[in-house]
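subagent[fold] <- orchestrator: predict structure for attached chain, return tokens only, no commentary.
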Amino acid sequence: LNSKGLTFFKVDRGEFANNKISMLGGGGGGFAFSIGLTNSAIDDVITIKNNFITASKLGLEIRSPQSNNINVLHNTIVIDGDLNPGLVSIALEVEDSSANININNNMLINTFDNADAYVMVLEDTTTIDVTDGNLFYGVTNTQFEINGITYADLMAYQTATALDHNSISKQVDFVDMPSGDYHLTSNQYTDPDLLTTVVEGLSLIHI
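subagent[fold] -> orchestrator:
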């Protein structure tokens, strides 16, 4: 019932990059995440970037009560699997954190259609240094939960929080979604909506 892909506990520093993770377990009453970062060390930098993540419940979970710096850059996280109705699913969750967190140039997607299907959950936005240049896509009217308040879509979330000013909500096509190849199809390379450059040297279309 409870299953976990990768858990990083009391990590000092470093990068977790260029991986493909598929975590489709935990379909019962438990909770499953693909990557969990917990209790990272004080005053160090941890970067999670350029990963393809598929999950049935939770893609990336950050719980970091220590004061450090965490970068979440250029990841594609897709919630797409056999989820029982009524269970919570979240592409990215930041909970119980005092870290300085940057969330930039990611694709965060949740295709489940139930009341508890979120694209992003941020428990406390005071810990967020920057979140921008992201692509969000969800199909419910509860796509974001920020500081305990639910927002129907990206526009409502942007208006209320002034975060993700340059981010977009858009459905995209991947090369081979069933196999976890989340490179964008070549016909989208000229789509002006996907040419964000908030993080220098990174662009959504190059994922």
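orchestrator: received. Logging for downstream: The CA atoms of residues 174 and 184 lie 5 Å apart. The chain has a mean pLDDT of 80.
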